[in-house]
Amino acid sequence: MEVAVLALVAGLDRAAAAGVAARLVGPGTALVAYDLRDGIRRTLRVDGTAGAHLLSGHCASCALRADLAMLADAFDRLVVHLDPLLEPGPIARELPVTAVVSVLDDDWLAAATGDDLVDGDRTVAQVAVGHAEAADLLVLHGALDLRTRAVLDRLAAPVRRVHAMQVAPDLLDGVRHAPVDEVFGPLLRGQPPLSAEAGVQVVTFRARGPFDPRRLDDALDVLLHGVVRARGRLWMASRPDEVLLLESAGGGLALSPVDTWLAASDDWGAAAPHRRARAAMDWHPAWGDRVQELAVITHAADPDRITRAFTEAVEHERTAL
């Protein structure tokens, strides 16, 4: 499956994202829109003619990926307007997406730092942050204040930003989506500024020893207030073989086992070359490649309190497994 253009357009403001998607459509481009408000409805517009179709299935993301795979075989150029509550990142990992365009309005930061639920597992903040984090191009709809811009400088440092009125089909020329290693890649994109601006700051934490499970649980609470985004790779004394991926946005947080540390694995060959190289360079005599690494973007939290909480959660007295 090869397409010249498969661009995903995401944004919490449905009308604003729809307008951007329409502006990206040029000659020979099909426009697809997915709406989850009443089932899984797909609208396909080609050469001014539109048709709607209701997709079957209980898994919206599964049905959407299957439908898009079929459309990508039929059309060489596709612009896809996603439902506001869909995140483009997981879709882009499964399909040959060429660009992710995320539309942010002047309410984006409030959404990205709140704790309203989308469903039982996700918050609106996780969706809002996911939109910005996955983007190859950010389209600004409205006037973003200094604090929002400071957050984006740290969350999506290398991503080009344009105003909605500047959107045109040629914006997609030369854009090529580059998927990243979600687990062992950089915790922050690009080279974000580490200095504070408009109350926004990046806090990093690194340690080698294991976390005590109870103390870690207490430390995680500091990430639920005044934090835009936190990502980390962690390990606990009670589960020494597991790589734990920490992801938080606003009032939502998840800590999940995602892989095995190479120190506990007999199959180094299955790991990506960049992971093997990094493990070899940073090997610890007691812990191997196990490491605590955390990057936090704050907007109203005390950086020292975050550092202190995670420092106190490490079992400094333990020297071996």
Question: Can you describe what's shown?
Answer:
This protein folds into 2 domains: 5-172, Rossmann fold; 201-313, Hypothetical Protein Yjia, Chain: A,domain 2, CATH 3.30.1220. The protein is globular and about 70 Å long. Helices cover 27% and strands 28% of the residues. A hairpin with a 4-residue loop joins strand 2 and strand 3 (40-46). The strands form 2 sheets. It has an 8-stranded mixed β-sheet with strand order 4-3-2-5-1-6-7-8, sandwiched between helices. A 5-stranded antiparallel β-sheet has the order 9-13-10-11-12, with helices on both faces. The protein has helices spanning 14-24, 60-74, 88-94, 108-112, 124-133, 146-155, 213-220, 273-281, 303-313; strands at 5-10, 30-35, 40-46, 49-55, 77-81, 99-105, 137-141, 160-163, 201-207, 227-236, 239-249, 252-260, 292-298. By secondary structure, it is of the alpha/beta class.
Mean pLDDT: 94
Relevant CATH superfamily of the largest domain:
P-loop containing nucleotide triphosphate hydrolases
Query: If classified by CATH, what would the architecture of the largest domain be?
Result: 3-Layer(aba) Sandwich
Radius of gyration: 21 Å
**Number of extended strands:** 13
InterPro entries: CobW-like_C, Zn_Chap_cDPG_Synth
Protein name: CobW C-terminal domain-containing protein
Pfam families: CobW_C (PF07683)
Organism: Actinokineospora bangkokensis
Annotate the secondary structure layout:
Elements: E1 5-10, H1 14-24, E2 30-35, E3 40-46, E4 49-55, H2 60-74, E5 77-81, H3 88-94, E6 99-105, H4 108-112, H5 124-133, E7 137-141, H6 146-155, E8 160-163, E9 201-207, H7 213-220, E10 227-236, E11 239-249, E12 252-260, H8 273-281, E13 292-298, H9 303-313
Parallel strand pairs: 1-5, 1-6, 2-5, 6-7, 7-8
Antiparallel strand pairs: 2-3, 3-4, 9-13, 10-11, 10-13, 11-12
